[in-house]
């Protein structure tokens, strides 16, 4: 699961956002840099969450305000590309605010809500 995907997931049970990400296996898969794509995605992201994840994954400090389409800050855009598109969570869990856990296995988050029958 790319970190970009993580930024669009919410708990299907409670509809809360964001989920807490606890990765156990992370890999980097290089992709071609696409400045236009990054610039189009920025307005759709929760910038505070992007900054938090950047710190969590040791990418460093991002500016307090998201870059705009006319930015010349190529360094920040390349960092966002690496963070959002090249960083993949192979294994781990997503946790909702109510404690529901969604496992990530082989890069795929399982967002299905399973009901446990207490009578069994």
Automatic annotation (TrEMBL):
Might you name a Gene Ontology BP term for this protein? tRNA methylation
Matching entries from SUPFAM superfamilies are given as: Trm112p-like
Top-rank lineage group of the source organism:
Eukaryota
Which Gene3D superfamilies does this UniProt record tie to the protein? 2.20.25.10
Question: Which GO terms label this protein's molecular function in UniProt?
Answer: protein heterodimerization activity
Q: Which InterPro entries match?
A: Trm112, Trm112-like
Instruction: Give the family per the record.
Output: Belongs to the TRM112 family.
Q: What is this protein called?
A: Multifunctional methyltransferase subunit TRM112-like protein
